[in-house]
UniProtKB/TrEMBL annotation:
Reactions accelerated catalytically: malonyl-[ACP] + S-adenosyl-L-methionine = malonyl-[ACP] methyl ester + S-adenosyl-L-homocysteine
CDD domains xref list: AdoMet_MTases
Pfam families attached to this UniProt entry: Methyltransf_11
GO biological processes: methylation
Function per UniProt: Converts the free carboxyl group of a malonyl-thioester to its methyl ester by transfer of a methyl group from S-adenosyl-L-methionine (SAM). It allows to synthesize pimeloyl-ACP via the fatty acid synthetic pathway.
Alphabetized InterPro entries for the sequence: BioC (IPR011814), Malonyl-ACP_OMT (IPR050602), Methyltransf_11 (IPR013216), SAM-dependent_MTases_sf (IPR029063)
Similarity-based family: Belongs to the methyltransferase superfamily.
Annotated protein name in UniProt: Malonyl-[acyl-carrier protein] O-methyltransferase
Keyword S-adenosyl-L-methionine: yes
Listed GO MF terms: malonyl-CoA methyltransferase activity
Length: 265
């Protein structure tokens, strides 16, 4: 089944701008995924610029700086407060900070040696167009390395909200097969792709919801319900959230797709 991903870019920018101060205290999954991304695809030696797309508060950027301190590092994010948080967190890091949209990069063609991105490209409104733009700025050969959410992310929360109404309460994400197709259509090859399911534990559903909001990752679908959710609707969703009989609390699944692709032509 084909899923059309419809995201509200204005809400994405506002959500992550508002989350800049609370992000680090809640982003354990992002840090875990970022380390795994670097383990799978460590930065190789090079002389050209490295671009971190969707740098957030700079966790991956800092590790890239440590791995290649003599190379030109570019930290890009759509939300200016995230860039300010990154600069404040790493005051001695030698990097240029760019507030821009990953779908409209302010770089010349064939000017970037490597692109990294950790849990950011899932917010692209038009992922095929974004991949074309990333390939445009890459040198030949140049590598694109990223981690993104897959469609099994927050499946438990989706199932619970489905008992309330038919609105999109949880973000939809592209499957691995579609991402590979988009990459090939954009002209990438030598594609290395893997999917892992991470599980995070929470004391209750409200804690999960607060974390998603605090990270700026709450519902940004254009098909979301207009107007606020009522307390009755929220309680109905919580009642139907899948529980584990063996221990208290809840778990939430996050499908992470790890990708490396090369632009040669």
């Amino acid at each position: 089944m084909t899923i059309e991903v419809l995201l509200d870019k204005g809400k994405i920018r506002r959500s992550f701008a508002a989350a800049a101060q609370s992000y680090d205290g809640l982003a354990a999954l992002q840090r875990q995924v970022g380390l795994e991304l670097l383990r799978r695809f460590p930065p190789r030696n090079g002389t050209g610029p490295i671009l971190d797309v969707g740098c957030g508060t700079g966790f991956l950027t800092g590790h890239l700086a440590a791995a290649g301190s003599e190379e030109h590092l570019l930290a890009l994010d759509i939300a200016m407060p995230m860039l300010a948080a990154c600069r404040g967190k790493y005051p001695r890091m030698r990097a240029d900070y760019i507030c821009a949209d990953a779908e409209k990069l302010p770089f010349a063609a064939h000017s970037i040696d490597r692109i990294y991105s950790n849990l950011a490209l899932q917010w692209a409104v038009d992922l095929p167009a974004a991949l074309l733009e990333l390939k445009r700025v890459l040198k030949r050969p140049g590598s694109l390395v990223f981690a993104t959410f897959g469609p099994r992310t927050l499946l438990e929360l989706k199932q619970a909200w489905a008992t309330v109404d038919d609105y999109a309460h949880v973000n939809e994400f592209h499957a691995a097969g579609r991402i590979e197709m988009f990459l090939r259509d954009a002209g990438f090859n030598e594609i290395d792709l893997a999917s892992l399911l991470y599980r995070s534990e929470y004391p209750d559903v409200e804690s999960l919801m607060r974390e998603l909001k605090g990270m700026g990752a709450h519902n940004v679908n254009r098909g979301r319900k207009p107007g606020p959710t009522t307390r009755t609707q929220l309680q109905q969703m919580i009642k139907h959230y899948p529980r584990q009989d063996s221990r208290p609390g809840i778990t939430a699944g996050y499908e992470i797709i790890f990708v490396r692709a090369v632009a040669r032509a």
